[in-house]
Amino acid sequence: MEYGAQSNGNAKTLGHGLKFLIYGRTGCIGGLLGQICEAQGIPFAYGSGRLENRESLRADIATVHPTHVFNAAGATGRPHVDWCEFNKIETIRNNVIGALNIADVCREMGLPLIFYSTGCMFDYDADHPMGSGIGFTENDRSNYSGSFFSKTKGMVEDLVKNYENVCILRVRMPLFSDLSHHRNFIKKIIGYERVVNIPNSMTVLDELLPISIEMAKRNLTGIWNFTNPGVLSHNEVLEMYRDYVDPNFMWKNFSLEEQAKVLAAPRCNNELDSTKLKLEFPEILPIKESVINLQLSNTDYLWQELYNKIGWPLYRKYGHAFEAFKIIVTDPDSVLNTLTSEVKKPGPDGQEVTEVVPAVTEEVKDALVKNIRRRMTPQPLKIRADVEMKCFQFDGVLHIKEAMRQAEAAGNDDCPVKIKLVAPPLYVLTTQTLDKEQGIVTLNKAIAACTEAIEHHKGKLVVKEQPRAVSERDDKLLAEHMAKLRNDNEEVSGDEDSEEEEDTSMGEVDVENAGHGIME
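User: That's the sequence. What structure does it adopt?
Assistant: Structure tokens below.
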């Protein structure tokens, strides 16, 4: 068997003839793996042997004849990892002995092993401070053993990484679309009365588990930080849950010190560097974008309700919802308070009655108004023109400065004009405005005023680029061009005069003696 341990997109994907043996059927990862295999038409079987029993593992392999083995089993504890603090022998059997057994048996039988491990072996430190963007890499060893679970995982990774047939995937705070599953990080924290608020790396299983199957097909091995790029804090996850799933959801925060009082073992917090995974699979989404997609998959019912109660009524009343949105930006109550819906409920006599109620709750209305205002508020455009300006008269620099002042004086409060030197003789004029046409007219006036002022002193102005709207990319290119020109103008070694050379070539002159010599 050949393995592609260090591949970054160059490993050859295996084709037909795959068959997977999966351990961890009752866990969320093992269960999801089976569903993915079914969807992709990959034959698979769940192992029935115990990981700590080598003979049962050999028997499973002999029965199934797999091409790859997946280890998604292990002791994480229920409802959480505090269980491991009080069940250390069972934790060792599963997380250490079992993990080593299956790695060793697979190597013995020439099989690649995908091992779903954890990233909960690291904690922010001086070399990886929180908020710095400096994440722990695959080359870093565990620096955290505050919980017995993390201690066993760090220990076993340090041993299993020596097996050349094993692909170790560091999973971290797994999220997935089934919000009812007790292993889902979202499900966990929405059930807590209070949560800490610390940025962490996370794994969106809906996106990354199919990638782990692709990694098996490519026979990739070694350690991989199996997380989406970037970090999310607890509050950011809960805010997205509130915004996309349950607008009535509320929560409270507390500190790490307060959290420690209610836990049997402290929790680690970290950022894992996912560069290696991203290079191999460039399509992986940043964590925030991936979680938004995840949350949206749970909101079909919410969108239908919003369309029925708000969207379609606004179309009927205003001809297009966009017209209503323009009003909502400044006067939301005049639009949204007129929308109602009918609900049926039992009356005092037991008969069903119809009651007219507001179409949406105050919480939903506030979320809508906030989103509409953000999307509808116009953003200022940047208008730019490029000119060349020269004046070779005496005090030409002063005349150019005066022309620049005249250009800026042509602006107004709505369209203030700025003129800046790029590198002689190139200048740029800019303005920011909500009205593109007004901005172009204003810049043309500024160019005319600048031209008149410089020509009065026999200078010359040539328009290289007419006023036009520019993007952030254009600004970036201009900044890079200016930086390059500055670098080109800086002195480099060899530009300066050499005092030693001057002394050597001219020599020293004894004026008095030289004079006498000449007179003689």
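Residues 122 and 140 are 9 Å apart (CA to CA).
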